[in-house]
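User: Run a structure prediction on this.
Assistant: Running it now.
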Amino acid sequence: MQIGDENVHLVRSVMDEVFGRENFVSQITFFKTAGLAKEEMSSVTDFVLWYSKDSQNLRMRRLFASKELDNDASYNLMEFSDGRRRRMTREESGSTSAIPDDARIYRIQTFTAAGLTPSCVFPIALDGVTLSPSQGVSWKTNASGAKRLIAARRLVRVGNSLTYVRYAADFPVNPITNLWTDTASGVGMDKIYVVQTKTTVVERCLLMSTDPGDLVLDPTCGSGTTAYVAEQCGRRWITIDTSRVALALARTRLMAARYPYYLLADSPEGARREGEITCQVPSEELLRASQGDIKKGFVYKRVPHVTLKSIANNEEIDAIHAKWQDRLETVRAGLNKALKRSWPEWEVPREADAAWAESARKLHAEWWKMRRDRQKEIDDRPARRHRISLRPALRRPEARPRHRPVHRRKSFAAPRPLRRRPARHRNRRTRGEQRREFRSDDYREPEESRCTEHREERTADVWPFGALPRSLASRRR
């Protein structure tokens, strides 16, 4: 239910009586157009009240937005490809475009837990210094997990404390909350109806509460935004309105719009694409058993979700570290022998001295190259294993089916001028004028739904995850 600030408290009281206070989910605040000029404070927000029929069986699909790092004071460090780390300058912190291409942005967080776990109290030796947790607290993982974190270069000593390195690329998105600040519309919004909600708001409402193939009902059609968005997202829809003008506008908008094509998860091509994303080969039985059911969803793009726990519990890091360690130790021993030094691993200089012999310079370059290769292999493993789904992937335009939707003329009949009626009937309305409705079932689709194809373009653009931008529309309906 969308409502303004003047009546939100009244509508919420009524909905509490209808659905029950225990079934209240959230009150979403979103920005709209600039407020009207008046003596009191202008209102620039509207509200969406979300209630469920049964809170125990609530269906919610969490949405994400890309993480903005410009002027983010927490992510103020960066690491280069050769392993060097330093603090960002003021220009680099103000704009990510000033950061070198080979650098990774990161932040540091405390490695001590809030409580005390006896199995997580032990000394940690890092760069020749032994550190222990303070009295009454413990580390965030056990000894084996701390060993893997050190191998992955995720632990850094800051003074006498131990911190955890969290890269911005570990989780490059943020969950969308109940405050939407990116939904303000203005002169750039092409309105075709007086009270028209921005598509971003309706998109998020549908994507949070429905799945592909679900039926969406909008009893107040207006400009047909709900039906338009539902068609974009692969949902069925029914929209109703008493005005012929509203239905005519909605019909024109739906028939003239462009729609994306997504790849069904329950299809041979979808199973192969899913296998490419998850690095698993689909079985022949799975390919033959696919039926093209849209209710099983689409093939979604993924982003990494790397956490401290996922690294500490990843046993593959032990095997990767052991595989490279013997070779690194051999090269380091040769370097120390050539220079008559006894450098431990953390004291090997990053730059070779000009006075060194050519053989020592080659050993030094080889050692650091192996260090970088080992680190890259360790970093790739958690990112591949831990991912979350974001939005459907799009199919290439040449693979989409060619057909046009067929509709019933009765439901989409254009408004005709009304004939003058006798005086005794002028205040009456015909049955057709009392309420008109049309639904997505009026489209007769082929066996392969037009919303199940996918194409890939503009993948480098950034938009709120879950929202389907108009620029990705595939073709004129």
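Residues 308 and 418 are 69 Å apart (CA to CA).
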